[in-house]
Design brief:
Length: 309
Amino acid sequence: MSPRGLTQLFAAALLVAAASAHGVEVRFERVADGVYAHIGELGGRTYDNEGLNANIGLVVTPGGAVLIDSGATARSAAEIHAAVKRVTDQPVRWLINTGGQDHRWLGNGYFKAQGVQLIAHANARADMMNRGNDHLQALRAVLKERVDGTTPTLPERYVEGTDIRLDLGGTVFELRHRGGAHTPGDTMVWLPAAKVLFTGDVVYVERMLGVLPVSSTKQWLATFDVIEQLEPVRLVPGHGKVTDVATARADTRAYLEALRAHMKKAVDDGTDISAAIKSFDATRFMRLLNAPELHPGNASRTYLELERE
């Protein structure tokens, strides 16, 4: 092994030790045979949760383990890896990034040092490049020294198209992409044998979703159509507990549909953006965590998106 490789492995070992002693607790819970999920905190990124306020997936196959997302830092990635080892002796072979948000991929560097192949949709690349350093700086303000050792590391394998089939150890993974959602690279991971769907940030339950400047609510709903077609038995959202399609529909789709319908009418009628935001009745969605803080920005960015359509 090269000196650089030895250095990376040594650094990774130190991260494992540090994370295990004082890091965020990662626990993979069984979803189906060979399928597991770590359910992140519903609140925001904090020093204690190390920015890992999102769900992480694990699939164990005869050919090795597959991780779905890598966490927000190298430190939390090390804890994810330690949690994998508590579930299986299989090495992690693949890591699939479901989108371009920080906790989906900023732990990539740690796993690359372990020889894991990093996979994402091609539409994620530009978003990761454009926002990776900004994400890291924002995290540093909250996580301080717990960001040390984290370097935005792009995937090495990009897939293209809308429906991509991968096979590891006889386990089929189908990646479903419809042009983005929360971020341009948002891609869902479907396990047809288990009938389990990992949605990434396409689905939020129990908490309000976030419409970002890079989001597309139009494509978001097109992506949700795939969920309706697949009819998964169990659905692992990007945020919130393992759920079903009906709950995902109520907490994610219904909000997006209502927001788009209201803002489209406002744009068509020439209603001012401020008046359009104030006139939207969000009462039925205020039950979701963070709704009062996130809704005004969501409404504003949806209005601007409808103006461009």
